[in-house]
Amino acid sequence: MLRTPNTEIPNLIGHDPALVQAQLTRILVSPHFRQSKRSQGLLRFVVDAALAGDSNSLKERQIGAAVFGRDTAYDTAQDPVVRNAAIEVRKRLAQYYMEAEHASELRIDLPTGSYLPVFTVENPVGATVPSPIVVTRAEPEAETAHAVRPGRGRKWAYAAVAILVAFGGAAFLWAERVTPASQLNAFWEPLFRDQKPIQIAIGQPSRLYRFVGPRTDELNRALGGGAAAGGAADQLSIGASEMAWVAPEYLFMRDALSAFKVASWVQSQGHAYQLAPVGQTNYSRVRHEPLVAIGAFNNAWSMRVTAELRFVCDQRTVDGVTYHFISDRRNPAAFVWKVAQPAGATMAEDFAIVTRAFDAATEKTVISVAGIETYGTLAAGEFVTSPEYLGKTLAAAGGDWRHKNAQFVIGTRIIDGTPGPPRVLATYFW
Known about the structure:
There is one protein chain. The protein is an alpha+beta fold. It contains twelve helices and 15 strands. It folds into three domains: 138 residues, no CATH class; 195 residues, no CATH class; 32 residues, no CATH class.
């Protein structure tokens, strides 16, 4: 193994840079790397820098700027894009070398806690293989005169190292598979794999008007003056020409906060995004780029994507009261996840559907973050960006969920006008 004292680049004697580059090419075109531009970019950069003897480039901030386009003064504590990408590279390298046909190849490893790659060969031509260091308990002096046969000791040492590496690699891969963070990344992977900007479409109010014309002030006083207006509002007659539809100019605050939370997380993973109100998110855009739809009844994309699925947002009137609710098509009589309309300021609970599903119309996987009201949408936005919530839920799901569509019904309690932690009420994979 090539080792480095402090920050020096390893001595490459016995390791022809051309052979290292050839091995790098084999790795990058393998099934483990060829679908991940981010992993390819990071591994190629650190190997090239090591071969060039450029240790200054192998620092987190410099890598973030060179590989992921970050500003050279960006805050690495707030933006762990390089650390997250390095974890992914280590996982993919371990998977590559676990395959028997690659076991005897020159190894390129990225040790934990470092961005300096290590190059290893089993017995490079022209290199001296160091004798293994064997630690034994002290024996009487006469006993120590019997030398250990070098060949036999060396074989046993290599066998022990091979076993430890195999077990260590398996344990590493298992830990990577089941950690909440890796599960969360796997949930988003269908949207990340295209390496295209993710469209985040924010729902908008559909019924929002402004008074216009000579009676604007009078109408505003009558309908917005509270008790001081007395019964004047009851006597008003308003013509259509006195109102202008202004809904496209506005967003609901909690929907916007949910979208910003999703956008921040997408950016932290090294991917680009575009925020836009749903009214500006047309089919030609989402036909070619991945989509996250924020909101339910105020977002036509969410409603269309979930229209034929198991869990869907619906409306029902019972005893003269209209409700927006989440319908379970496998249990249509159930009427539990509901919010009376119009929703009042005193509502105590909201519900949401989180969906990840392949959409035949766009030929893309779409994620929908859809609350009945905006409280649910904000809680669902927290759910889809948190290893603590979605990651743990998926880690406990079992089975091969990664290649399936998924829906989650989320509940959240509202305290002092703020949604609490998201609670998973139902899950479905298909």
